[in-house]
Amino acid sequence: MRVMVTGAAGFIGYHVAAALLGRGIEVVGVDDLNAYYDVRLKQARLARLGQGFVFHRLDLADHAALARLGDGVEVVVHLAAQAGVRYSLEQPFAYAASNLTGHLSVLEMVRHGKTVKHLIYASSSSVYGTGSALPYAEDARADQPTSLYAATKRADELMSRSYTHLFGLKQTGLRFFTVYGPWGRPDMAYFGFAEAIMAGEPVTLYDEGRLKRDFTYIDDIVAGILGVFDHPPGDAAPHRLFNIGNNRAEYVTDLVRLLEEQLGRQAVIVNRPKPEADPVETWADVSALGALCGYAPTTRLEAGIARFVEWYKDWREMREG
Question: What is the CATH number of domain 189-213+247-282+299-320?
Answer without folding.
Answer: 3.90.25.10
